[in-house]
Amino acid sequence: MTVKIEVIEGGIPHDQLMIAGLVGSLVCLYLTYLNTVTGSQYFVVFGGLAAVCALVWGSNTIKVLCSYGIGTGVPSAGMLALGSGVLAMLLATRFGLAAPIVAVVLAAVIGLILGFLANNVLMMKIPVMIRSITEMAVIGALSLMGFSAMASGSFDFAGMSSKSGPFLGIVQYGYADSYMGITIIAVVFFLAAIAIQHPFNATLGPSWKQDRMLWLAAECGFLSMAAVAVMSFAFLSFNAACVSLAISIILWAYTYSQYITLSKRDAAFWLDAKPIREPEGH
Amino acid sequence: MTVTPKPAGGVGMDWTSMGIGILIMIAIIGGAYIMFGATSVFYALIGIIVGGALIGFGVHFVPVGGAPAAMGQAPGIATGVAMLAGGAGLAGLFGGAWAAAMVPSPGIWVVCMAGAVGGALMMAITCMFVNVIYVYAMGIPAASGKVKTDPITGDTQTEYKSQGTEGHGLPFVSFVGGVIGGFLGGLGGTLIYYMLLENVYTDKALSDALGASALANVTPIAVSLAGMFAIGLFLVNAVLAAYNITGTIEGPHDPKFARWPRAVVATAVASAVCGIVAIGIVAV
Fold it and tell me: How many CA atoms lie within 13 A of A122 on its CB side?
């Protein structure tokens, strides 16, 4: 029943990736708090980096879980991760400065219960199920919080729900045109979901290599990050949004070239297609 | 290498685990009753649990074919459970949210039915065009592999089934199952949305949570929060039900359909856990 159908050979051990992803994500999330400390908005880019850290970790978690053949397709795992993550993340934003830590703890509790339900009540009986779903809820919460902090400039509920700006010379607080008010979080939700489920879905198979999947995960993360940076123009100063956009595009280009290099390495044969030449004198 | 020994599942039940799950749910309901009393917030939690269980039950009706269906080797719609249930549920949610925003409010039944019809319509359109593509583009007839005759129309199936397949296309009973599944999914999703919007994220509760003045318009935040929590809860419940099905199901006539009691318990417990989190955002 629980036959492991793909072997994980070599590469970075999953525990190391998990610790690196968790710590990296939390550190980057707290670096966005420098916005409040320094009064600038340039540190939002760390929110995107926090999300990418979590997504890279998440792609390997999906690999660990889906190597057991759960029968419902890889995307379902990503949807479960983000679905449970968004609940924990939104409640955690109410805790101010402790939000990232609360998000991790709360998501772990929700994930633990969901993992228990899937593994025992629904009788999936997969050895890594509980741990993987717990991890994925945390990943979902962290990636959503990272992207939300990047788009809105804050990981605080009040900060996400209000947009302060001078209107007719008076500083006003608007709720309707804030990050939460126009539900940008729904777009971010699916941007993160695509980034978490795509890497393993695209690289699985007999020639699966961990480094190729991780570079693809980073590439997907930075692509989503660029989209979030475009949306952040609505909530942040023009310069800050430009900086995040430039950084995400540069990092995307770098990770994309790395991924193409590794794809060429793992491919049996690589042929660069040329445009069809028009025959002369027709 | 990638042979797919899927988890077999079966229709048995793990009573101990189920008991633990139900205990968690009762503890959460009891805790909510102690915290809030028999207020609208408490009824919202009950509504969320009922909505979640409806989603978990409804997913079992949807004919999910997955990759084999795309190759014409199994009946059903050629995609995964999470995608199909997500599509039907979100379509239903849009319908329900549109009805909930009407002034004056048409009441819970109209809102929930608008959501249910939205989900059912989405599934009906999907099922119809899936069959159009199967019949006119792939050139395969609809034939169930699990039953000899269609339980509704009585049409024989085995003559039309190709050798080496588990059936193909979308038989009538699967079509009906898809519409029922979309109806229940849309109903459950909209119930969750409406409960959160009307009972939990009221203007007063949300203004207090945001520290906003009483005059500020916080309705967009309430709609956004209720919508996001409804989507999150919907995806959690749909994926849990999908894990119960483990892959493909033909509809209500499939032997796997008998597994639904497990999914209803699991989704009810999951909805209780997620529902208390959704309520917590205005309570902490």
Answer: 33
B18 in any annotated domain: no
Residue A171: pLDDT band with limits 50, 70, 90:
low
The confidence band for B2, taking pLDDT boundaries of 50, 70 and 90, is very low
Q: Is residue A277 part of a domain?
A: no
Gap from B116 CA to chain A (nearest CA, Å): 21
Answer left, alpha or beta for residue A175, where phi above 0 means left and psi between -120 and 50 means alpha.
alpha
Interface test with B, best of A93, A128, A134, A175 (most B CBs within 10 A): A175
B236, B249, B265: best mutation site toward chain A, by most A Cβ within 10 Å?
Answer: B236
Query: What is the mean pLDDT of the segment spanning A137-154?
Result: 93
Please determine, for residue B216, whether its predicted confidence score (pLDDT) is greater than 80. Answer: no
Q: Is residue B186 in some structural domain? A: yes
**How much of chain A, in percent, has pLDDT values that exceed 70?**
92
Q: Is residue B250 part of a domain?
A: yes
- Out of A2, A126, A175, name the one closest to residue B218 (CB): A175
Q: Look at residues B239, B240, B13, B9 and name the one whose alpha carbon lies nearest to residue A1.
A: B9
- The tally of domains found in chain B comes to 1
CA distance A95 to chain B (A): 9
Instruction: Give the domain extent around A112.
Output: 14-162+173-266
Tens-place pLDDT, residues B166-198: 888 899 999 999 999 999 999 999 999 999 998
ipTM: 0.89
Residue of chain A whose Cα is closest to the Cα of B21: A117
Nearest CA in chain B to A127: B7
Domain count, chain A: 1
Q: What is the mean pLDDT of residues A227-243?
A: 90
Domain-located, residue A1: no
The answer to whether position A280 is within a domain reads no
Using only C-alpha atoms, chain A has a radius of gyration, in whole angstroms, of 20
Tens digits of per-residue pLDDT, B65-88?
888 888 888 888 888 877 887 788
Contact B257, A94 (CB under 8 A): no
**Is B82 within 8 Å of chain A by CB?**
yes
pTM of the model: 0.89
pLDDT in tens, B74-128: 888 888 877 887 788 888 888 898 998 888 888 899 999 999 999 999 999 999 9
CA–CA min distance B240, chain A (Å): 6
Taking the CA of residue A15 and the nearest CA in chain B, the distance in Å comes to: 25
Cα–Cα distance measured from residue B95 to residue B84, given in angstroms and rounded to the nearest whole number: 17
On whether any CB of chain A is under 8 Å from the CB of B101, the answer is no
Q: Does B22 touch chain A (CB under 8 A)?
A: no
Q: Which whole-number Å values give the CA distances from B72 to B135, B168, B251, in the listed order?
A: 11, 5, 17
Query: In sequence order, what are the beta bridge partners of B77?
Result: B64
Whether residue A275 lies inside any domain: the answer is: no
Q: B-chain residues within 8 Å CB-CB of A181?
A: 220-221, 224
Structure tokens at A225: 């990050």
Given CB atoms, is B12 within the 8 Å cutoff of chain A?
Answer: yes
Joined together, the tokens standing for residue A90 give 């939104």
Taking 80 as the threshold, does the pLDDT of residue A105 lie above it? yes
Across the interface, which of B2, B218, B229 has its CB nearest the CB of A5? B2
Domain that holds residue B110: 26-283
